[in-house]
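// run 5 | inverse folding | seed 20
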């Protein structure tokens, strides 16, 4: 199993506070059969821009202390119209330095330029992965916003905590809906520490496995391809439940 989203590197963002905490987090992940984790520290254009030099120093330090899990590079990129320019200027980088970019949306709105940006990234040969869209209130209200992105080739990273119920019942229910619609392509713990937001990846995987075994299988087969920078196999067809006449009537009257 691969954890695609963690804030495991110490003292570079609001994640792990020190090396000891990082080692505790790694220990927790190794007990969950996780073999690879992506160290996706925050990168917020114009607000919080970690340099590659600082990132590498911390990353290599942790790698030298840890022998249990394969740790690979990454960033959680806050969406911005400048992302392409920043990538071309080598200010940002992808997962394991491949062309897969983990991109986060704001929680409460869906930027008007988002669809164009994701389209343009694909056109340039990059592979955007949208981070935890099940936590975005606009996508919760209108799943078509996410379907449109996936139809143009964007992959979806879901937080395992969303399926476990860590963010409340509304997000858990929506996360389950996305699993049933095949709208998940990788999982991440989004772990920030070893206590209040610890890594709990396997529990999320177990729920997903129970709900949608075919999707679970697809994820296991394709997550390694992503880490190696290879193309994924055909993404699972999005399942859209057809509304009945009475269902439509009911929804329109709400
Ligand atoms: Fe995160």
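// decoded
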């Amino acid at each position: 199993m691969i954890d695609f989203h963690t804030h495991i590197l110490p003292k570079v963002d609001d994640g792990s506070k020190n090396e000891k905490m990082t080692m505790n987090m790694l220990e927790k992940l190794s007990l969950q059969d996780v073999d690879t984790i992506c160290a996706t520290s925050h990168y917020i254009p114009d607000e919080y821009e970690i340099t590659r030099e600082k990132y590498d120093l911390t990353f290599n330090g942790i790698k030298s202390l840890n022998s249990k899990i394969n740790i690979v590079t990454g960033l959680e990129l806050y969406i911005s119209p400048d992302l392409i320019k920043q990538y071309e200027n080598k200010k940002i980088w992808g997962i394991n330095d491949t062309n897969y970019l983990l991109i986060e949306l704001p929680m409460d709105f869906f930027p008007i330029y988002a669809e164009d940006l994701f389209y343009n990234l694909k056109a340039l040969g990059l592979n955007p992965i949208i981070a935890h869209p099940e936590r975005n209130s606009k996508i919760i209200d209108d799943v078509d916003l996410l379907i449109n992105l996936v139809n143009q080739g964007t992959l979806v990273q879901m937080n395992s905590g969303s399926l476990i119920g860590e963010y409340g019942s509304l997000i858990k229910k929506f996360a389950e809906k996305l699993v049933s619609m095949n709208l998940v392509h990788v999982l991440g713990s989004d772990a920030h520490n070893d206590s209040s937001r610890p890594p709990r990846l396997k529990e999320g995987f177990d729920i997903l496995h129970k709900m949608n075994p075919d999707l679970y299988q697809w994820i296991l087969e394709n997550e390694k391809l992503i880490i190696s920078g290879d193309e994924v196999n055909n993404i699972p067809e999005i399942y859209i439940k057809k509304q009945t006449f009475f269902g439509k009537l009911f929804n329109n009257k709400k």
